[in-house]
């Protein structure tokens, strides 16, 4: 088992990565919470139900009182209404201020559970058990929680760190191909923003990774979690450095919103967004043509990405509603080289528009 500490104040927590962790969830929690184990509420979605059952069995063996609550699946279920109805169910099930929520599912489950935990009775503990690749390398770590509004993604949310994250690569065996690949784009992102070894590993090990080779997976998940840990440690509240994690997300979020969260997986939108960022970087002279092409080629190697039919105007409108827009200025994270990005504020709208038009025609490489 690989252990990575997320060194946030006042209470650091561990991300544990390894096969068989789900079977041991009960003993992990007993160890964490000591002699008076709390009541646990496992929040899950139908596709992750099987893994929730493994967790539930393990809690039972550890003698921990618990219940399983299923919620609706999908990005469109990441809404305030879901939080409210879950809260009502928690009250009816007797959850109190000492209870602990366990999120067993993908990033949507984790974001909703974390948000709910942060406001339920003014805040209770929660544990992340991410069951998608994307959630294991990214969403489950760092304490950002939230839900979407019709106007845009993640516009309501809080910072609330989990007490523990358990990432077991075995859960990835049931992930549909498209969701699995979508997560790999976030790993590519980690490489581009901070660690070229991740990027090069993904260039080299494409076939291994697409076969979901457990050894390759543990290496990649661990490397990505280290990137996230370092960035979150330096800037928990996203005032500075943490913004680099938004690489590919500026245009990506706009595409997701403009297509009603239906056409693109989050990771796929990030794939397009990284191509867009490389393209904008090229247009503005921050990124060499060689680096931009290399990024585009790496994204496409983990494709195919669904074609986007979104007009430049729609994207510009969405950008105006984005959290990354402050005082009317949208901040873009642009690649400098593989492993290093920079934040640029003054990207002209016409450059963004031209880039989006290009995305509509498909990839360059
Ligand atoms: N909080 C953060 O810091 C952060 C970071 C990145 C992304 N996110 C959010 O995460 C979300 C995307 O996460 P995601 O890609 O995990 O999406 P998701 O949670 O929608 O999961 C994708 C699909 O896979 C299913 N699934 C989950 N585990 C499975 C398994 N083991 N086997 C089979 N099916 C399974 C899900 O039920 C869903 O249908 C977005 O809402 C994004 O905004 C949050
Ligand atoms: Zn993301």
Structural key phrases:
365 residues; alpha/beta; seven-stranded mixed beta sheet; 13 strands; globular; binds nicotinamide-adenine-dinucleotide; binds zinc ion
Ligands in the model, by name, code or SMILES, are: nicotinamide-adenine-dinucleotide, zinc ion
Mean pLDDT: 94
The major pleated sheet works out as:
7 strands, mixed
Instruction: Tell me the series of helices and strands, N- to C-terminal.
Output: EEHEHEHEHEHEEEHHHHHHHHEEEEH
Can you describe this structure?
The protein is an alpha/beta fold and 365 residues long. It has helices spanning 25-33, 49-61, 80-92, 107-119, 133-139, 177-194, 196-204, 206-210, 214-234, 249-258, 266-284, 289-301, 312-320, 349-360, and strands spanning 2-6, 13-17, 40-44, 66-70, 100-105, 125-130, 144-149, 152-159, 164-167, 325-326, 329-330, 332-337, 340-344. The strands form four sheets. Strands 1-2-9-6-5-3-4 form a seven-stranded mixed beta sheet, sandwiched between helices. It has a two-stranded antiparallel ribbon with strand order 7-8. Strands 10-11 form a two-stranded antiparallel ribbon. Strand 10 and strand 11 (329-330) form a beta hairpin. The longest helix has 21 residues, at 214-234. The model has no long low-confidence stretch (mean pLDDT 94). Bound molecules: nicotinamide-adenine-dinucleotide and zinc ion (ZN). The site of zinc ion has 5 residues, from helix 11.
């Amino acid at each position: 088992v690989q252990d990575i500490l997320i060194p946030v104040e006042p209470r650091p927590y561990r991300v544990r990565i390894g096969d068989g962790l789900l079977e041991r969830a009960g003993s992990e929690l007993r160890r964490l919470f000591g002699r008076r184990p709390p009541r646990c509420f496992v929040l899950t979605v139908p596709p992750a139900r099987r893994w929730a059952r493994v967790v539930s069995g393990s809690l039972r063996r550890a003698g921990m009182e618990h219940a399983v609550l299923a919620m609706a699946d999908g990005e469109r279920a990441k809404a305030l209404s879901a939080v409210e109805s879950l809260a009502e169910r928690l009250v009816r099930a007797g959850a109190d201020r000492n209870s602990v929520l366990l999120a067993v599912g993908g990033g949507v489950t984790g974001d909703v559970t974390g948000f709910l935990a942060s406001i339920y009775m003014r805040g209770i503990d929660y544990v992340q058990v991410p069951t998608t690749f994307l959630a294991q390398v990214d969403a489950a770590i760092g304490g950002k929680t939230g839900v979407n509004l019709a106007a845009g993604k993640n516009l309501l949310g809080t910072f609330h760190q989990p007490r523990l994250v358990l990432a077991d690569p075995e859960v990835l065996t049931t992930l549909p191909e498209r969701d699995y690949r979508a997560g790999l784009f976030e790993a590519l992102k980690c490489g581009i923003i901070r660690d070229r070894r991740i990027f090069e590993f993904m260039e080299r090990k494409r076939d291994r990774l697409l076969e979901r080779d457990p050894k390759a997976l543990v290496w990649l998940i661990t490397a990505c979690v280290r990137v996230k840990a370092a960035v979150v440690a330096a800037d928990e509240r996203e005032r500075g450095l943490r913004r680099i994690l938004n690489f590919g997300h500026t245009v990506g979020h706009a595409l997701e919103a403009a297509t009603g969260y239906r056409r693109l997986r989050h990771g796929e939108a990030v794939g397009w967004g990284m191509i867009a960022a490389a393209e904008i970087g090229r247009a503005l002279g921050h990124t060499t043509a060689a680096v931009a092409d290399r990024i585009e080629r790496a994204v496409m190697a983990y494709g195919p990405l669904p074609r986007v039919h979104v007009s430049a105007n729609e994207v510009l409108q969405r950008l105006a509603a984005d959290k990354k827009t402050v005082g009317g200025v949208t901040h873009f994270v642009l690649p400098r080289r593989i492993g290093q990005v920079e934040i640029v504020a003054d990207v002209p709208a016409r450059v963004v528009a031209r880039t989006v038009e290009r995305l509509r025609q498909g990839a360059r490489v």
